[in-house]
Specification:
Elements lengths: L35 H8 L5 H15 L6 E6 L6 H6 L3 E8 L2 H12 L6 H7 L3 H4 L4 H8 E5 L12 E5 L9 H13 L6 E10 L2 E3 L2 E3 L6 H9 L2 E9 L8 E12 L2
Parallel strand pairs: 1-2, 1-4, 2-3, 4-5
Antiparallel strand pairs: 5-9, 6-7, 8-9
């Protein structure tokens, strides 16, 4: 899950527990209070069927994208390592861009040697022969992974050859315009024709990490696809409905793959 502030936004003195999702904009949220371990316990401690399917489709997409020795990016990595793992066999470098200080600290530990929590996720990747040929993914990530404290709104233009952005646009504020802006900045950060995978929650009205509440925006499938289509082509869309439910609202998970127009 990605936590990234609007460029130039100041951080309030209020704690995340006091922030409610409705009406919240990104710069009002104290993302440094995000607890990555609590988030992982709730979302990723056990590999869910919906995440398995999202990862499987992402894996197959990148395996067929004719990538090699690529400069890759995972935007808003948060406390989720599986988008990065989906890029691993094709990467010369992977930049994991995240804003929350607590998440950045966690990511740097994981890049050095990731927890066994992520072994089942890599096993899904390794069901494909391209990934299975990578016999030591931990060592590979330690070699190619680079964590930076970077906002999605401050990404450079045309900097990467492939990228992922999972559960970011839906989860950085309750402002629809900020979600659209995050998608646009991500696509602009990719070089022309670069393959990408974007995942969002649809219908989310907020989420909890431990005892703290964080904002979300209730995105609609048609709007998200339209936002991505303005900067991409060869788009493919897949929707998963999590069972059991993992967030407030009528939630489903949307995966969109394609290539950036540049």
């Amino acid at each position: 899950m990605a936590m990234t502030p609007a460029a130039g936004g100041s951080k309030p003195l209020t704690s995340p527990a006091s922030i409610r999702a409705p009406g919240t904009v990104n710069a009002e949220v104290e993302w440094d209070g995000f607890d990555p371990q609590a988030y992982i316990r709730h979302n990723y401690a056990e590999l869910r069927d919906d995440d398995r399917e999202i990862l499987r489709r992402t894996r197959d997409f990148f395996a067929g994208a004719e990538l090699s020795d690529a400069c890759c990016v995972d935007v808003g990595s948060g406390a989720n390592l599986y988008p990065t793992l989906s890029l691993l066999p094709f990467a010369h470098t992977i930049d994991l861009c995240e804003w929350s200080t607590s998440n950045v600290r966690w990511l740097r530990q994981q890049v050095d040697s990731y927890d066994t929590t992520w072994d089942p996720y890599w096993q899904v990747c390794a069901e494909h022969p391209t990934y299975a040929a990578l016999t030591d993914p931990r060592r590979c990530l330690a070699k190619v992974g680079r964590v930076s404290q970077t906002s999605v709104f401050d990404l450079p233009t045309h900097a990467w050859d492939a990228g992922t952005m999972f559960f970011v646009a839906c989860s950085i504020s309750a402002d629809r315009a900020e979600a659209e802006r995050a998608i646009s900045r991500f696509l602009r950060a990719l070089r022309p024709d670069s393959p990408f995978a974007v995942a969002v929650m649809l219908g989310s009205t907020g989420y909890h990490v431990g005892r703290c509440s964080f904002p979300a925006v209730a995105l609609v499938r048609s709007e998200v696809v339209a936002d991505i289509a303005t900067g991409a082509y060869d788009i493919d869309v897949h929707e998963e409905r999590p069972r059991p439910q993992i967030r407030d609202g009528d939630v489903s998970m949307l995966l969109i793959t394609g290539r950036a127009r540049g």
